[in-house]
Amino acid sequence: MTFLIAAAGTGGHVFPGLSVGEALVDLGVSREDILFVGGDRLEASVYPREGYRLLQVELAGLQRSLTLGNLRIPRVVMRARSRIADEMARSGVKVVLGMGGYVTIPAALAARHRRVPFYNAEQNAEAGLANKFTARWARTSFISFPRTGGLPQGLWVGNPVRSIFWDFDRAALRPGALDHYDLSGDGPVVGVFGGSLGAMVINDAVVAMLRSWEGPPLQVVHLTGSSHLESLSGEPAPDSVTWRRFGFEESMDRFFATCDLVISRAGGAVAELTATATPSILVPGEFGSGGHQRGNARFLEESGAAVIVEQGELGELSGVVADLISDDARRSAMAGAARAIAKPDAARTIARTMIEEAT
């Protein structure tokens, strides 16, 4: 029997999808019996590198403004549906999971056409258009927050995180992580993470903060995004700041084990922040379905796990960082709040449901 996972585009879809694949393997499913469906973006390198099969189909996203490009979408979707349905028949697919985004719609249509059970999973506090549309055919919509706009009947299981976060142990990982980044264990470490591709608005704000830093000694691990690393590599830092810059980090458990505080977008990273009980400053992106990152960030802030700094308020970042790294008790309380809302077993919960459906 084969399990199909449709997940494509950015890390916010790809890595939760990969996490469910890891959970299926952990529960005894062979990698050869897991089929991912996507396009030619991040998924084209991630899934094959991890040893999974990938069916690539042409994808097209709906433009929110009126455009002639939207007229070709039905044709693209139906071609993708046909390819997926044909492969489902060849591979003996028994269950389909859509992780949201453009590829979920043709995958759901193919599942419906083949009369194969379909589930979807939503990573954000406001459901995307694809998951809202396909929820009518889903046996269950798995959601990442207690309340998810557009999916009122969803089952709250959390957002799937990679297996490295299932049993995260900061104390055990931290000494080796500090050595890897050539950092001291004596002072606080601030991590900066703008998502799998980086976020220039956060990069610029951190550069401005560090240029004029007047707070206590600070260590910074900055994941700039590969395309931004070269432009930031020559930026100087004050003597009181140790600033390590990297385009991308393969071992994100190492990154989180190093950090006492993380400055981040509020997409898929919020699941990793809670799974690792890491206090955070969240900068919601002003894009996506209904400003979904703002809803994600609000949940963490209301829970006491994070502080929100809006993009238009990034000039105040230095003060927020200085206050938090100087207040150990507050950061400890934030870590406890993050731990209280974490659901690191989400991937295994979804995988178990898929296996039970198939057997």
Describe the fold and architecture.
The chain starts with a strand and ends with a helix. The chain has helices at residues 11-26, 43-49, 73-91, 104-114, 129-134, 170-180, 200-211, 229-232, 252-258, 269-275, 292-303, 317-325, 328-341, 346-358; strands spanning 2-6, 34-38, 53-56, 93-98, 118-122, 141-143, 155-156, 189-193, 218-223, 241-246, 261-264, 280-282, 306-308. With 359 residues, it is α/β, with parallel strands linked by helices. The protein folds into 2 domains: 2-164 and 344-358, Rossmann fold, CATH 3.40.50.2000; 168-341, Rossmann fold (3-Layer(aba) Sandwich), CATH 3.40.50. It is elongated. It is 41% helix and 16% strand. The strands form 2 sheets. The protein has a 7-stranded parallel beta sheet with strand order 3-2-1-4-5-6-7, with helices on both faces. It has a 6-stranded parallel beta sheet with strand order 10-9-8-11-12-13, sandwiched between helices.
What's the CATH topology name of the largest domain?
Answer: Rossmann fold
Q: SS-based structural class? A: alpha/beta
Q: What is the count of distinct domains?
A: 2
Kindly state the mean pLDDT as a whole number? 93
Quickly give the CATH architecture of the largest domain: 3-Layer(aba) Sandwich
Order of helices and strands: EHEHEHEHEHEEHEHEHEHEHEHEHHH
Straight-line N-to-C gap: 9 Å
Overall morphology: elongated
Fraction in helix: 40-55%
The parts where pLDDT drops under 50 for at least 5 residues are 62-71
CATH class of the largest domain: Alpha Beta
Q: Please, what is the CATH homologous superfamily of the largest domain?
A: Glycogen Phosphorylase B
With strands numbered from the N-terminus, the spatial order across the biggest sheet is 3-2-1-4-5-6-7
Summarize the main sheet: 7 strands, parallel
